[in-house]
Design goal:
Shape: globular
Largest sheet: 5 strands, parallel
CATH class of the largest domain: Alpha Beta
CATH topology of the largest domain: Rossmann fold
Protein name: Sigma-54 factor interaction domain-containing protein
GO molecular function, one term: sequence-specific DNA binding
Order of helices and strands: HHHEHEHHEHEHEHEHHEHHHHH
Organism: marine metagenome
Keywords: ATP-binding, Nucleotide-binding, Phosphoprotein, Transcription, Transcription regulation
C-alpha cells in the first residue's frame, strides 16, 4: 500500500485506508469458506474447531457429504497460517493410484508430493473412493509419517459413499487416535440462512468473475429454504452461477430455479450424459427418464404424491416407473 509521508495528509490517509479496505474485502470475497463462516449458523462450531487445528501438528480428517467444499476449508486453514498460496498442494488419491505401476505403492506418489514442499498444507481427496488395498497403504503411510517438517495433512472423507463412510470414520478414529476429526454439517442444517447465503454467493461471482448481480424473488427464496440441497454448497454455487450467466431479467423466479436445479443436479452435472448421441433411442429415453424423475423427486423432497402431480402421472404407474428405473423413492420419503 501507499507510503504516507509527513506531514500527514488527511486525504491521503483516507485514500490509503479505503484502498486497504477494498483489497481486504476483495480477498475475503474470493474465499469460498467465508461464505459458510459468515452466512451459515450451523458452521459456527465447525470454524471454531478449524481455527484450533490450524497450528496443531497432527493429521486432520474432514468428514462430510459430497459438495461440502472440504478443499476450500483446508485452504481457509492454510491461509490463516501461511501468507503464500504456492505451498498449498492438493492431490486426488484415487487418481494418484491410477498413475501407479503395478509394482508401485500409493506411498511413492505421496512421497514425491512431500518432496516438493518445505512447509505448508497437503490436502488429500478421494480416500473414500480407494479400494481397501490402497486405503490400507494410505493409512499406513499417514500413520508412520513424521509430522515435524512443517507440513499439515488434511484428508477429505465423503460421508455418503458406497463404502459406508460412517464405519470407515470410526475405523480411522481407532487407527489415528492422535489425529483430529471434524464433521462438516450439510447446508440443509442452515436452511434459514439460505437468503443471506444467496446474496453472498452472488457477490462472490461478482468479485471473481465480474458477473452482474440478479435478485431472487421472495417466492424463489422460499422454495430454496425448503430444498434438501443434496449437493450442499457446491450445488448452491453452481445453481447461482448458472442463473447469473443468463442475460435478461433482473429477478430470478421459481420457474427458473426449478429448471436450473432439474437440469444441473447436485454436483453440477447435466441432466443427460454428453455421449447420449452414441446411445440407442431406448437407452437415451431410459437415461432421460431416470435423471428427470430423480431430479424432480429431489425438488419435492421425496414426496411421490407431489411428484405424481408435477409430472402428471397416475400414482400407481409412477411407482412402477420408479421401480423399473431403480430409483429408490422409499429412501427419499
Amino acid at each position: 500500500f501507499d507510503f504516507i509521508e509527513k506531514p500527514l495528509s488527511i486525504e491521503k490517509l483516507v485514500a490509503s485506508a479505503e484502498k486497504a479496505l477494498s483489497a481486504s474485502t476483495k480477498r475475503a470475497g474470493k474465499d469460498v469458506a467465508l461464505l459458510l463462516k459468515n452466512n451459515c449458523s450451523a458452521y459456527r462450531d465447525t470454524f471454531l474447531a478449524l481455527d484450533v487445528e490450524v497450528n496443531r501438528n497432527q493429521i486432520l480428517f474432514l468428514n462430510g457429504e459430497v459438495g461440502t467444499e472440504k478443499e476450500e476449508l483446508a485452504k481457509y486453514m492454510h491461509h490463516k497460517k501461511h501468507k503464500e498460496g504456492d505451498n498449498f498442494v492438493t492431490s486426488q488419491l484415487n487418481l494418484l493410484v491410477s498413475g501407479q505401476q503395478e509394482n508401485e505403492s500409493i506411498t511413492s506418489g505421496l512421497i514425491k508430493i512431500i518432496g516438493t514442499l518445505e512447509g505448508g498444507t497437503i490436502y488429500l481427496s478421494g480416500y473414500s473412493e480407494l479400494i481397501p488395498k490402497y486405503q490400507t497403504q494410505t493409512r499406513n503411510f499417514l500413520q508412520n509419517l513424521s509430522l515435524g517438517q512443517g507440513i499439515k495433512f488434511v484428508v477429505g472423507v465423503n460421508s455418503n459413499t458406497k463404502n459406508k463412510s460412517l464405519e470407515q470414520h470410526k475405523e480411522l478414529g481407532a487407527i489415528f487416535s492422535d489425529s483430529a476429526f471434524i464433521n462438516l454439517p450439510p447446508i440443509r442444517q442452515c436452511l434459514q440462512d439460505i437468503p443471506e447465503l444467496l446474496k453472498s454467493v452472488i457477490d462472490y461471482f461478482g468479485i471473481t468473475e465480474g458477473l452482474a448481480p440478479r435478485r431472487f424473488s421472495l417466492a424463489a427464496q422460499n422454495i430454496l429454504t425448503k430444498y434438501a440441497w443434496p449437493g450442499n454448497l457446491k450445488q448452491l454455487k453452481n445453481m447461482v452461477h448458472a442463473t447469473l450467466l443468463r442475460p435478461g431479467k433482473e429477478i430470478v423466479n421459481i420457474e427458473e430455479i426449478e429448471e436450473t436445479l432439474t437440469l444441473q443436479g447436485p454436483s453440477g452435472d447435466l441432466l443427460v450424459q454428453k455421449d447420449i448421441l452414441s446411445m440407442t433411442m431406448v437407452e437415451a429415453k431410459e437415461q432421460f427418464e431416470k435423471a428427470f424423475l430423480s431430479r424432480q423427486l429431489e425438488l419435492v423432497g421425496g414426496k411421490v404424491t407431489e411428484l405424481a402431480r408435477r409430472v402428471d402421472m397416475e400414482r400407481t404407474n409412477l411407482y412402477r416407473k420408479l421401480s423399473s428405473l431403480n430409483i429408490d423413492y422409499k429412501k427419499k420419503q
